[in-house]
Amino acid sequence: MPERLTGARIMCRALVDAGVDVLFGYPGGAIMPFYHALPEYPGLRHILVRHEQAAAHAADGYARASGRVGVCVATSGPGATNLVTGLATASMDSSPVVAITGQVARTMMGKDAFQETDIVGITLPVTKHSYLVEDASELGEVIAEALAIAIDGRPGPVLIDVPKDVQNQEAEYEMRRFRLPGRPAVATAGAQLPSLEDGIREATRMIDAAERPLLMVGHGVILAGAYAELRALAEKTGTPVITTLLGISAFADGHPLHLGMPGMHGEVHVNRAIQQADVIIGVGLRFDDRVTGNTASFAPRAKIIHIDLDPTEIGRTVKVALGIEGDARKVLRRLVAAVAVREHGAWQEEIRGLERHRESVYQDLSPESILTALQEATGGVCTIVTDVGQHQMWIAKLFPYRRPNTHITSGGLGSMGFAVPAAMGVHLARPNEPVWSLSGDGGFQMNMAEMATMVQEGLPVKLGIFNNGYLGMVRQWQQFFHGRRYSCTPIWSPDYVKLAEAYGIPAWRVRHSSELPDAIAGANAVPGPALVEFVIEQEANVFPMIRPGGSLSEPIEAAPAAGD
Amino acid sequence: MDTTRVDTHTVSLLLDDELLTLNRAVGALRRRRVTVTRFALGPAGDGAARMTFVLTADAATADRVARQFAKVVGVRSAVVLAGDQPTSHELALIRVRDPGGLRTELWRAVARYPATVISEGPDGVVVRVAGPGSIVQAVVAELSPFGILEVAQSGPITLAGATALTIEEGS
Fold it and tell me: Looking at residue B49, which CATH number applies to its domain?
């Protein structure tokens, strides 16, 4: 039976009916009718953030950890524009987020009314789809459709802009079973991709004939949950596995075939393996510039098989010998059944032979010691959300991820400030296991106001800060490529322990590795949020490094001498 | 087929005739840095619009552009046609200077093409031509000695039947 409800109630009902149970948001004038209705729907838990950017990142973190759509809410104008970085982050990393924004009343639109902004126009390039709802009767269907589109195929953000008077307008509501529109027909004279059957056959032939094969896997494997299939293919064919930044934790660290991260900060033997490989099986990755370096010299001996859900990614940056359009899990399952058993022991040894144990170039409180202590304290049972910069690379390289999808970071957009709010979303998706947000002192200060959200909403996120007093990654580039002119990269921090105290958050400052176990155990033991500041070496660098636009064959393994 | 040779391609999209969908489709051109030389947009019935544009690229890129559009919600079909298609037509209005004593020559030149004079006056003669892009360009070239004052030209419109798709690149 259809019910007659206000637009605002329809919004709430449609969210509940679609299975949404948590919203991250911030009220304001144009979204007030929605917030007025919200208390009538106790199934919708609302997390009041301190800035709308955090709402979008938190919804993104929730989506990545849960595999469900994350929802954020903001008012018109500045509320809506504050979401943009979060939506762009979700768009670049294929994360299903729905943003609901209030808009000025229909009669006021187009007149530069107070807090009016064309948020649909502003977000067009960073959303998968968007709606401006002109009548309350459309709201139920729009919300159901938006949630479905966000997670269908390659996930991404969807925006719903709802004028205030539409929220107040009454209309009939009935739960709809939403059916996605069919895929459009594409016909081109230059069609490149074979059918799935032909693709599997050709890939099998190439994999069976390979002598130095590599698997390179990205976020697509995590989004598809293709962990078992990936492992089965790697083990059956004796193929070492490289995980991109967003592919980390798709394949267990510690597995004999695990190699680690490639690209700009990939280990030397990982990048060398790429340069020596004869067949690369790329699954659910974009071959982006941070992975490939200079594409002209990338994997010069390899025939690349590129498997991706999104055909527009295939062959976009690197030349591929074979493209297969499809879900990672489905395609990998077919490949596992089709390929021959191989060993490739000599090839694996060749790669391992290039591996070298690097003596720590860091002082006592090294990134290694911090991550080892964290691993020991949690037994690996935790999700780590990282920010952007040096700490992000250290963690990507050094933390031994054993469980799937336990590494969450902003990869494509590289949004500093992501970790703290995204970790709140991760906690709500995984309330029964610890969540560590790890940031640098720069990124932490961008969204540290969310400590208040954690206290008010009872979100026990553990906050780790790698404090080196610099915007470290930029400083490293200045050191390597800009003659050590540290222009605007020294960054002052408040006393984080006192700051946390002001929020009522227990905090520890660690200066020596001997203090690590107590601090981390203490933070894990408190029931609510906790903060640990790691005071690390000021000019520690991330090694090795490939010069931007440089070849994977030419790693930088030491800082240039002063005066170079 | 050589997919790396750079050539012109006509892309024809059928999409929801709705401002937001059109806006998103045009935005995709800009965002993906697709350089379009000619562009046409008009209603196609059944709540749809047809957007047609010409780009110069290799076949693989043209293919990817079409697939990029196919990801836009509201796009109903995307077709890439290689080269100059017989089904592809453009319209141009060309105003030339009052020919004075060369009136007969102008009329003769127009008569050699699917073109007509649609107005004549002291501010010049307006010639209308409709046909494949090559014809429109030929008429513009033919009339230039008479002194072209201005040109209003549409982008191409095309109806791609199934048979058109079998036309090989460059044929």
Answer: 3.30.70.260
Residue for token digits 């201005």?
B150
Do B58 and B99 belong together in one domain?
no
Q: What is the DSSP letter of A470?
A: B
* Gap from A248 CA to chain B (nearest CA, Å): 27
What the block records as the tokens of A405 is 């999808």
Q: Do A190 and B23 touch (CB under 8 A)?
A: no
Q: Which of B82, B107, B132 is the last residue of a domain?
A: B82
Question: H-helix or E-strand containing B33?
Answer: none
pLDDT of residue A562: 67
pLDDT score recorded for residue A364: 87
pTM of the predicted structure, to 2 decimals: 0.94
Q: Annotated catalytic, A111?
A: no
d(CA A196, CA A307): 10
Q: How far apart are CA A259 and CA A232, in angstroms?
A: 16
pLDDT, greater one: A265 or A188: A265
CATH, residue B125: 3.30.70.1150
Mean pLDDT of A403-415: 97
The tokens describing A431, both together, are 């309330």
Among the candidates B60, B82, B104, a domain finishes at B82
Residue B163 lies in a domain: no
**Helix, strand or coil for residue A431?**
coil
Q: Is B121 found in the same domain as B54? A: no
**Window 126-155 of A, Cβ < 8 Å to B:** 128-132, 149, 154
Asked if residue A433 has pLDDT above 90, the reply is yes
Same domain, B52 and B78: yes
pLDDT of residue A383: 97
Q: Check if A418 is active-site.
A: no
Which positions ≥6 away from A138 have C-beta within 8 Å? none
Q: Do A315 and B64 touch (CB under 8 A)?
A: yes
Question: Residue B1 and residue A190: Cβ atoms within 8 Å?
Answer: yes
Whether residue A125 and residue B169 make contact (CB cut-off 8 A), yes or no, is no
- pLDDT surpasses 80 at B82: no
Q: What is the predicted ipTM?
A: 0.84
Domain that holds residue B27: 6-82
Contacts of A74 (CB under 8 A, 6+ apart): A25, A26, A28, A31, A52, A55, A80, A82, A83, A99, A100, A101, A102
Task: Give me the phi and psi of A474, to 5 degrees please.
Answer: -65, -40
pLDDT reading at B171 higher than 50: no
Q: How many residues does the structure list for chain B?
A: 171
What is the H or E stretch that residue A458 is in?
Answer: none
* Domain assignment of residue B67, yes or no: yes
Rounded CA-CA distance A540/A559 in Å is 10
What domains does chain A contain, in order, with CATH numbers? Answer: 3-173 (3.40.50.970), 196-354 (3.40.50.1220), 367-542 (3.40.50.970)
Q: Is residue B158, in this structure, part of any structural domain at all?
A: no
Q: What is the pLDDT of residue A180?
A: 76
Q: Please check whether residue B164 lies inside any domain of the structure.
A: no
CB < 8 Å to A184, chain B: 70, 75-78
What average pLDDT score do residues B125-139 get?
A: 93
CA distance A248 to A400: 10
Same domain, B70 and B97: no
